[in-house]
Structures are given as structure tokens and as C-alpha cells.
Design a protein that fits this description.
single chain, alpha/beta, two-stranded antiparallel sheet, 6-stranded parallel β-sheet
Length: 210
């Protein structure tokens, strides 16, 4: 069963992305085609990109990058849950994408966006361009939540029937693409050779944990 990560893209205190992400993860579990994990960027605490080496080389000097790499690497597909900030995605999500390269390759991605009248769709348009540059496959099917506060209550986020139907369509298409792209994920291109990065672990050495 392919592994799906539902990634909460906002790290702002009080964000609506947390309950919306929880709903999206539950919808994915009920779909039944994926092994689902809810991934909260706020829990990783990634700083502004601070790796001395190019992400293509995969030689990481910092433990926070190694942990983020391990998380992304184990997934076969993604759902990015994103608001719209100034007609674009949250800086935290763009930063998290930029930390890595190989770990994103040939993985499909769907989007759950939320906002006002535009439903966060301008954020999604930017993320589609970025994810395509990382050789991901952004799918057209998506969940766009307009006037998001009308779906919020004491019990968290409550989706209506059209949103539930949109999630079902998105997840079905994600599963198809995940299966279709599996041969490419199993045979990724080799990382380019380059000078060793100071502080990066030696290939094959144990990854520090803590």
C-alpha cells in the first residue's frame, strides 16, 4: 500500500491548517488506498534554508535536514494543505520544499487549499510550478475551500458534501498516479558528484538521532 503524507503547510500559531489537515488525513484513511500519515511542518522546526551543499547532492550537514529528508523519503504521494498569503504559499512550505530534491522525485501531489473568495487557489498555482521543478506530478483534482470560516466550529473543521466529493476524486487520482510513477521512484537518477560538504555525514554512516 503506498504511503501518503498529508502535509500541513502553515506553521502560524492558531492556523486553520491543523484542523483542515486532520480532516484531509481522515478522508484519506477512509478512502482506503493509502497508508496515511499527517505531517506537521511546525513539528520539524526547519530554519530558513541553511544547508551549505546543493540539495541535489543529498549531503546534509544538519540533523533537522536529515529528519525532514527521512520523512519525505518514505512517502509515495503527498497532499499539501495550504492557505494563501499575499497571493502565494506560506514561506514555511516553500522553504521545506527547497531543503530537498531527490526525496520529492516522481511523487504525485494533490492540494487542499483554503481562504476567502479565492479559496487559496493562487497559492496552489505557485506550488504547482515549484513541485513540477522538483519532478513531482501535481494533479488537477483538488479541494478548494472558499470562505473557510463558515466551515469552522467548536468541533473543528466540518466539510460539506461538495468538499467531501472533491476529496474523494483527488485521492482516487493520487492513487492512480502513485501506482503509475512507482517504476520511476524505484529507479531514480544518480546524484551528481561534487565536493564533500563540511559537516555532512559520511555516506553509509549511521544517521544521528535525538
Amino acid at each position: 500500500m503506498p504511503k501518503l503524507h498529508v502535509v500541513i503547510g502553515s506553521t502560524r500559531p492558531g492556523r486553520l491548517g491543523l484542523p483542515i489537515g486532520q480532516w484531509a488525513a481522515q478522508a484519506a484513511k477512509e478512502h482506503g488506498g493509502f497508508d496515511v500519515e499527517l505531517v506537521d511542518l511546525a513539528e520539524f522546526g526547519l530554519p530558513l534554508l541553511d544547508e551549505p551543499g546543493h540539495p541535489r547532492a543529498g549531503q546534509y550537514a544538519h540533523e533537522h535536514t536529515l529528519k525532514w529528508s527521512a520523512s519525505v523519503d518514505e512517502a509515495d504521494a503527498f497532499v499539501f494543505v495550504t492557505p494563501e498569503y499575499n497571493s502565494g504559499p506560506p514561506a514555511a512550505l516553500l522553504n521545506a520544499l527547497s531543503f530537498l530534491y531527490r526525496e520529492w522525485l516522481y511523487k504525485p501531489v494533490g492540494f487542499v487549499s483554503y481562504g476567502g473568495v479565492a479559496a487559496g487557489l493562487r497559492s496552489v498555482q505557485v506550488l504547482k510550478e515549484v513541485s513540477t521543478a522538483l519532478k513531482m506530478m501535481p494533479i488537477p483534482e483538488a479541494v478548494a475551500i472558499p470562505f473557510v470560516f463558515k466551515f469552522m466550529g467548536e468541533g473543528g473543521f466540518r466539510a460539506d458534501e461538495p468538499l467531501e466529493a472533491a476529496a474523494t476524486m483527488m485521492l482516487a487520482e493520487l492513487l492512480r498516479w502513485s501506482e503509475a510513477l512507482e517504476p520511476l521512484r524505484l529507479n531514480p537518477p544518480q546524484a551528481p558528484a561534487g565536493p564533500p560538504v563540511p559537516g555532512a555525514p559520511v555516506p553509509g554512516a549511521p544517521v544521528p538521532r535525538g
